[in-house]
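pls design
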């Protein structure tokens, strides 16, 4: 079986370091950088613009964490080339429509608009130290979270939070896209609590950062998705494991 690219899309305030534990298990992982957002464009509009920058010359599957899962879903629904080449989306610790965006998040998004950069940066770094307390993270992983919080693009972060708060995706009925879509959620996720009926698969011992706490299981889920279309996601030295 030929290997499939796995396009890894990170969550809010994060970057490719979010996939440091999963990427070595995969045959061909790629993590494209987010493009700058244009003004007040919606999540759907941004997803189309982003998808147009992705290499669509060959088939791929997507591993979307949180915000990344939302972008992948919107791209699959709105951008023809992306939908044609995407063989599946594994959406982890994410959501599939606007019903998952609660009022508490929307209120925090409104407050965020008034915070100066210095306070926002301080808040992100401080929050990173206690982010997702149900996840048993190693010290190096906590250090990665802190580094990402300290280095993230605040302009993009502000836009992304507002875009998520204003997401207009109607409730999921399963017919929005022909791209195979599978949503995994940790039962103890206190960052994005499981929206009723959203998760296709719930992991009992997991919080929000399954990418760090369950990399082997994530890689196997991607492999199952690849195998379903006659491909392979795992690195060769992992296939027999």
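designed seq:
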């Amino acid at each position: 079986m030929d290997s499939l690219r796995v396009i890894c899309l990170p969550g809010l305030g994060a970057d490719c370091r979010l996939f440091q534990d999963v990427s070595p298990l995969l045959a061909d992982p790629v993590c494209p950088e987010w493009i700058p957002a244009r003004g007040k464009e919606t999540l759907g509009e941004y997803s189309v613009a982003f998808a147009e920058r992705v290499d669509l010359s060959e088939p791929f599957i997507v591993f979307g964490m949180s915000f990344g899962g939302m972008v992948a879903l919107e791209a699959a629904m709105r951008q023809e080339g992306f939908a044609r080449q995407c063989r599946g989306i594994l959406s982890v610790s994410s959501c599939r429509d606007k019903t998952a965006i609660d009022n508490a998040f929307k209120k925090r998004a409104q407050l965020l608009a008034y915070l100066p950069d210095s306070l926002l940066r301080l808040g992100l770094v401080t929050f990173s130290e206690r982010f997702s307390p149900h996840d048993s993270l190693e010290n190096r992983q906590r250090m990665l979270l802190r580094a990402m919080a300290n280095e993230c693009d605040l302009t993009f972060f502000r836009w992304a939070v507002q875009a998520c708060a204003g997401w207009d995706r109607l409730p999921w009925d399963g017919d929005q896209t022909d791209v195979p879509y599978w949503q995994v959620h940790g039962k103890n996720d206190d960052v994005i609590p499981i929206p009723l009926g959203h998760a296709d698969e719930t992991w009992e011992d997991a919080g929000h950062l399954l990418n760090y706490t369950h990399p082997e299981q994530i890689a196997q889920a991607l492999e199952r998705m690849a195998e379903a279309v006659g491909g392979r996601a795992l690195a060769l030295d992992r296939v027999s494991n």
